[in-house]
Specification:
The chain is of the alpha+beta class. 48% of the residues lie in helices and 12% in strands. A five-stranded mixed β-sheet has the order 3-2-1-4-5. Helix 9 packs antiparallel against helix 11. The longest helix is centred in the middle third of the chain and has 33 residues. The C terminus is likely disordered.
Length: 363
C-alpha cells in the first residue's frame, strides 16, 4: 500500500467509514470499521492527517486520535457539502471530507479541550433552565386564566398569582394541588438556575479576557463568557468586520452585473452569540435614544432620536459594530473610554488581542 497522506472519516455512533489518498491523490484506502476496530486501526497506522466533520463527539474523537500522533482537522458540515457527490452515503461523505481538506483555502474548526467543553456546558445548562422556567411560568399563567385569574407580565408577578390561586374559591381542589406541584417545580428551577449563574459568574471573574470583554457597553458577564467560550482565536480573522461576518451580523450580498444588492443579515454562525449581542446593543441604543442621551458619541450621532424599532437598519449597523468590537485583533490593550464614549488611545499598551481597541478612525 502507498503511503497515506490524508484520511477522510465519516463518523457515527458505531460505524466509521474511512477514505484515504496518497501523495498523488489516488485512492488507496476504503474501509468500514466499528468503534473498537477504528481505534486499533489508527493505533497501528503511521501518523497522518485525519479529517472529520465537526459534529457531535467530534472533539472528543479528535483528542483521542491526537494522542496517537495523528493530525486531526475538523471541518464544518456546510463546507463539506459542496464536495459530496450525489447519491449520498457514508463512503461519499468520507470521500467529500478527504477532498475538501485538499483545498488550500479550507477553513477548519479548532479542536476544543475537555475543559473548554465543560465550560460550554454552563451556557447550555443555563439556557435549558431558562427555557424550562419560561415554560413553567407560561403553563401556570395559561391554566390560571381558565379560572379567571390573570396577572401582569414579569417573573416577579408570578408569586402573587400563585398566592391568588391558593386563596381563590373559584379554583377546585384538584386544580389547586396541580398548581402547587407546578409551583414546586418552578421554585426548584429557580434554585438550580441561581446556582448555575453563580458558577458562570465565578468563571467570568476568573478569566481576564472575559472581564475585558465585559467593559464593552452592552456586554455583560454572560455575553463575555459566551464570546470567550465559543469564538475561535480572533487572529484567524483579518478584521473586526470578518468576525462580524462570522457571527452572521453582516448583510447578505446578492449582487450581480455590477449592481449591489444587500439584504438582511446572513444569520450565519452561532445563534446564541448573535442573540446576546443583539440584546446588548439594543439596550445601549435605547439609552442613547432616551431622554438622557447616554452612550458613545458615534452612537449618538448615528441614532440621535429614533428608537431601534423604527430604524432597524441603523440598529443592525450598531449590532454589527458591537460584533467588530468584540473580535477586533488590533494588537492593543488597556483602552479606556471617556465620558463621550470614545476610546482614549493615549492609555493603550501592547497586547496580542484587545477587544476594546478601536482601529478605525471613527470614535
Amino acid at each position: 500500500m502507498n503511503q497515506i497522506i490524508r484520511i477522510g472519516m465519516d463518523t457515527s455512533k458505531y460505524i466509521f467509514q474511512l477514505h484515504g489518498v496518497d501523495a498523488s491523490e489516488q485512492v488507496v484506502l476504503r474501509k468500514r470499521l466499528g468503534r473498537s476496530g477504528m481505534l486499533s486501526f489508527f493505533t497501528k497506522l503511521a501518523p497522518t492527517v485525519i479529517v472529520i466533520e465537526a459534529c457531535g463527539a467530534a472533539h472528543c474523537l479528535a483528542r483521542e486520535l491526537g494522542k496517537l500522533g495523528h493530525t486531526v482537522k475538523l471541518i464544518a458540515p456546510q463546507l463539506v457539502k459542496p464536495y459530496v457527490e450525489r447519491n449520498k452515503n457514508d463512503g461519499r461523505d468520507a470521500e467529500g471530507l478527504c477532498e475538501a481538506s485538499s483545498r488550500p483555502r479550507m477553513r477548519y474548526v479548532p479542536v476544543k479541550t475537555a475543559e473548554q467543553q465543560a465550560a460550554l456546558m454552563l451556557l447550555g445548562v443555563r439556557d435549558q433552565l431558562v427555557m424550562r422556567r419560561t415554560q413553567l411560568s407560561n403553563t401556570i399563567r395559561g391554566h390560571a386564566a381558565e379560572f379567571g385569574l390573570i396577572e401582569a407580565k414579569g417573573l416577579d408577578k408570578l408569586a402573587s398569582l400563585l398566592a391568588a390561586i391558593e386563596q381563590g374559591d373559584s379554583v377546585p381542589v384538584l386544580a389547586r394541588d396541580l398548581f402547587a406541584m407546578l409551583a414546586r417545580q418552578y421554585a426548584q428551577v429557580q434554585v438550580e438556575l441561581k446556582a448555575i449563574e453563580a458558577r458562570l459568574l465565578a468563571w467570568h471573574r476568573g478569566n481576564a479576557l472575559s472581564r475585558r470583554l465585559a467593559e464593552i457597553p452592552g456586554v455583560g458577564p454572560v455575553t463575555a463568557a459566551a464570546l470567550v467560550m465559543k469564538a475561535p482565536d480572533p487572529h484567524a480573522f483579518r478584521s473586526g468586520r470578518m468576525f462580524a461576518a462570522w457571527l452572521g451580523l453582516t448583510p447578505k450580498d446578492h449582487s450581480t452585473a455590477g449592481k449591489t444588492r444587500l439584504g438582511k443579515i446572513t444569520r450565519a454562525g452561532d445563534e446564541r452569540l448573535r442573540q446576546f449581542l443583539v440584546v446588548g446593543a439594543t439596550s445601549v441604543v435605547k439609552q442613547a435614544t432616551g431622554k438622557h442621551h447616554r452612550g458613545p458619541r458615534w452612537l449618538l450621532e448615528r441614532c440621535p432620536t429614533r428608537c431601534p424599532r423604527r430604524c432597524p437598519r441603523r440598529c443592525r449597523r450598531v449590532v454589527e459594530r458591537f460584533g467588530r468590537l468584540a473580535g477586533s485583533p488590533t494588537g492593543r490593550t488597556g483602552a479606556a473610554r471617556g465620558v463621550d464614549g470614545k476610546i482614549d488611545r493615549s492609555r493603550m499598551r501592547a497586547n496580542p488581542w484587545d477587544p476594546l481597541a478601536e482601529h478605525r478612525s471613527r470614535g
